[in-house]
Amino acid sequence: MEFFRETDVVVIGGGIVGTAILRELSKYDLRCLLVEKEPDLSIGTTKANSAVCHAGFDAPAGSWKAKTNVRGNALYHELQDDLDLDIKWCGSLVCAVTDEQVEQLGVLLERGKANGVPGLEILTGDEVREKEPNLTTTKAALWAPTAGVMWPFGAAIAFAQCAVQNGAQVLRDCAVTGFVKEDGRVTIVNTTKGAIKTRFVINAAGVYADKVARLAGDDSFTITPRKGEYILFDKTAAPDLVWGIVFPCPTRTSKGILVCTTTHGNTFIGPNANDQDDKEDTAVTPAGMEEIIAGARKLVPNLPLGAAITEFAGLRAVSSTGDFVLGASPVPGFLNAAGTQSPGLSAAPAIAEVLVEALGKEMALRKKCNWNGRLPRKKAFNKMSASEKKAVIAGNALYGRVICRCETVTEGEIVAAIHEPVGARTVDGVKRRTRAGMGRCQGGFCGPRVVQILARELQVPVSSIVKERAASHLYYDKFTGGGTEGGK
Amino acid sequence: MEMYDVVIVGGGPGGLSAAYSAYRNGAKKILVLERDRELGGILQQCIHNGFGLHHFHAELTGPGYAGRCIDLVKDKPEIETMTDTMVLDVSQDKVVTAVNPQQGLFTVRGRTVILTMGCRERTRGAIRTAGERPAGVFTAGAAQRMVNMEGYLPGKKIVILGSGDIGLIMARRMTLEGCKVQAVCEICPYSNGLTRNMVQCLYDFDIPLYLSHTILKIKGRDRVEGVTVAKVDARMRPIPGTEFDIDCDTLLLSVGLIPENELSRAAGVEIAPFTNGPKVDQHRQTSLPGIYAAGNVVHVHDLVDFVSDEADIAGKFAALDAQGRLEPVVSTVAVKPVDGVRTCVPQVLHLPREGEATRLFMRVGAPARKVTLEVKCGGEVLVKRLFPVVKPSEMITLDIPADKTAIMKDEITVGLKAD
Amino acid sequence: METKVMNCIMCPMGCELTVTMEHGKFVSVTGNTCPRGAKYAEQEVTDPKRMLTTTVRIQGALLPLLPVVSADVLPKGKVADCIRFLRQVEVEAPVQAGQVVVPDILDLGVDIVASRAMGKVVP
Question: In three state form, how does the secondary structure of A18-58 look?
Fold first, then answer.
């Protein structure tokens, strides 16, 4: 049989969990390969979530969620510098607006202590308003100083780049279609690009993890997509909203509707939590928007709705087991990193450790002596000092041309994002790597320029450039008619 | 640091008109900074005709109008222009920081600065349309640039939301390019475009116009596959049971323009409510001394001719200011829009002893016929003008002679009175 | 006798005009509030005319398209044919504003001219 690749471990899924696992694997003397069905990494759950690195007081002690969240939060503090991650350690508040909820804070505090969360504290309403003047309804709050907001796609891409610089491979546009087993053991992964011979498979396929597990013969869990909708505000809205992370008291199904900052000073409200069968439906709904507006108003009564710049929804992967599904499965050679709903983002680096430990029980792992965990620095042009700006333009004139006006992103940064390891090939891919198009005009001015730069740098026609997934074509050529149909 | 009499941020019709006016009023060293690769601004993509009847007394296309403005500033040693140049910061002491590939990062100082950055389009996010986020949703202006300047079409089967002039013009453009325009939807009970554009862009091509309708949902996961439309009630809320689907691969949004004032705000310029632009006096001076503003950055215009008129004013007084030739101000008069007038520019008058002839630029809140516009001070009508018809989409003007401004005190009101 | 309802476009009033015709010939108009409206109505029902604006391809310029405009109004019914014709036209930079791109298009007696100047760009 002809193989397209031969490897020791195949990781399925290029979200935050899959990429964190790939990076952890790259520390060892292994051939490892990540397959992602879409044209870019991090475009499932990792793309549309609250981007909070939780402190870890929510999940019951002893659960995977609790253990990996607290450990993952600590790991991000360590990884931030090496991987040049965008994380703002602003701390989080859980706000009580009724007397019942004030009592609930005590429960959360105790649980957090049991989980080993450092620095937790109950603040009075007035102490809260010293930090967040707009929280006029808050009676008391749980303060967790170790929480932060992060740039989740940036983290996933950084994990992948770190792995690639240590010899791992990433294949995009590569969907798993099935497995071949020998003596009950998975040995071959069939994909849309060909068959891959492997010794182990790690399933980090997000909302599709149950389908992938079924293909391998593991039916020990199911995944229910739980939709969460969000409204994102312009940076100018922050003084009317919040400077940090603000939760209501949690309910049984979710941590509730937040009012929250982002790494770049925008603010958002959301998410709601609605279970659905469809693994693809990420549509924003009028009812959902009303729900999150009503929820957020309980914390901040005067929402600056006129400053909204976009609305979006994401799907969390909720496992039937009630916890993350981590480690060996009933199928030999097949491991799961599944059901990684919240706090999956916060837990990802710790989940990666758990999976590698599980793998170590099945095969001998030897650490590489020359592993390099440090990525090159990538400072955004708009965060540079005047002398740094001058120096970077002197080295490459393209840094002197601003393409995205709202976020001041230069052509030099966009070209670099296209040519870096696991580089951008789509308009949204450029956006996730550079912020071009993330501002208040939402790509109105820069979108077409980004398309043209992508076409030029990738040496393909403009009409073949897509927004996100393979069928998301943007333009027809006016004269040849090439484009949407031609690309299908 | 290089010193200029006048530094102008933006090389569209506003910036170029201001530069020429500053030159004619004695400024010796003028700099225009433009972010695009060529001068002319958004007009370069507005290839249709109908521009210039007021200002140049000729019917011009957008590029034709831009060309006239460019001709005014070229080959004049007093006026320097830089393209492909993005202004990153304007400070209160009028230091302008900019960047381009040739000079890198640089700063210049102006004795005066004129802000003419124009406006940008409202996006889908601002109107909170439900649905997925597929490719195929474009603002009308972004699509216009691709079609008219770059050689690409945004799609083949089009629905347009918003019946302002940009939406109407794009309905015709896309039809002439061989696309099928399925419908234009307008949330208001009336169109926001010129009658001429209604006739020549929609009726000529039998394109359906749905008034009092909005788009509830965008369908399609990767590329737009259709939209769900519904009728709205008098308070613009969708009426249940009136939903229907329209098949399309593209949605163009023409849902309003927003003055681009990020630089103004960062500089500390006071922004006026409703216009969302700098609060200016009759010279177009902002709340910061020596910093002027004109055109769509102050308030969104319907006619570029008015942009040029306003920029002429800003250019003139910025030039006089730079030369220390402004007349001393003896009184400050607030201009307050009332009774059907939604916005009025200028928002304040800074008057010399003998008064000063002034033109007010206004927008009304709702369409009306046979109304009188009155300027009042302390209950007394100073100036009035009869309008056979007024519409929110069309700016109206009123000239106040110098002798009337000389008798104003503290505050004047501008309002409509039904006949 | 037949009637046709239309909006006058001569000024912002936008009067609703009702034109009466017989055998395709103009008879009378009501609803106008000025003589310009009457003239517009007669022209519009007997021989409607439109300006044409579009783009043609250009080689050697910064942009791939040159905007063009008809030097005068054209019969409304011929606009689509003209657009189709112009889709095949290609010019070479440099071009001056007002330069004739297509003389006497489709023998209609009207030139198509460049809306703007476009310089030659050295690649």
Answer: HHHHHHHHCCECCCEEEECCCCCCCCCHHHCCCCEECCCCC
List CB contacts (< 8 A) between A44 and chain B.
none
Does this model's pTM top 0.80? My answer is yes
Same fold, B1-121+256-326 and B327-419: no
Q: Structurally, how many domains does chain C consist of?
A: 2
Which residues in chain C (64-123) have CB-CB distances under 8 A to chain B? 64-65, 67, 69, 76, 79-80, 83, 97, 115-117
Domain ranges of chain B: 1-121+256-326, 123-255, 327-419
Distance CA(A75)–CA(B44), nearest Å, equals 53
* CA dihedral of residues A9, A12, A17, A21 (deg, nearest 10): 10
CA–CA separation, A486 and A464 (whole Å): 8
Q: Which two tokens stand for residue A128?
A: 């809260």
Residue in the structure block whose two tokens are 């798993």: A176
Which member of B84, B105, B126 has the closest CB to residue A401? Answer: B84
In B, which residues are within 8 Å of C117 by CB distance? Answer: 67
Quick check: B234 and B223 in contact, CB under 8 A?
no
CATH code, C77: 3.10.530.10
CB atoms A308 and B156 under 8 Å: no
Query: Considering the domain B1-121+256-326 in this protein, what is its CATH number?
Result: 3.50.50.60
Residues spanned by the domain of C24: 2-47
- What does the pLDDT look like over B89-122, one tens digit per residue? 999 999 999 999 999 999 999 999 999 999 999 9
d(CA B381, CA B224): 55
Query: What is the ipTM, given to two decimal places?
Result: 0.94
Look at residues B366, B394, B342, B362 and name the one whose alpha carbon lies nearest to residue B190: B366
Nearest CA in chain B to C68: B47
Query: A243: how many CB neighbours lie within 10 A of its CB?
Result: 16
